Amino acid sequence: xxxxxxxxxxxxxxxxxxxxxxxxxxxxxxxxxxxxxxxxxxxxxxxxxxxxxxxxxxxxxxxxxxxxxxxxxxxxxxxxxxxxxxxxxxxxxxxxxxxxxxxxxxxxxxxxxxxxx
Length: 117
What we know:
There is one protein chain. The chain has a single domain (5-116), classed as P-loop containing nucleotide triphosphate hydrolases (Rossmann fold). It is 25% helix and 19% strand. The protein has four helices and five strands, in the order H-E-E-H-H-E-H-E-E. It has helices spanning 5-15, 52-57, 60-65, 79-84, and strands at 30-34, 40-45, 69-73, 96-98, 114-116. It has a three-stranded mixed β-sheet with strand order 1-2-3, with helices on one face. Strand 1 and strand 2 (40-45) form a beta hairpin. The chain is globular. 18% of the residues are buried.
């Protein structure tokens, strides 16, 4: 929680020249933005989703079909199902953002992040 998932999406939106305010979709589950180039950015939050069916209900397959950019927070909840959607036309990049921590799991510095992909 609070590691910067929405902040990451804000930077991505800026790169797509999206002028809208980017806010977390935690309570609405999905927000869509359109960049000046016509590329859609879809921002989904799976935190409150209990089943993959809910992710399907927000239109994930259609977003993929439309070749939009999709950011899915808490995607690891449905990792197997999402990976099944990947094919030659879909570039799937898993980005992990976390606080650096000790081997016991204690956060070292809340002002730093470890990002891997």
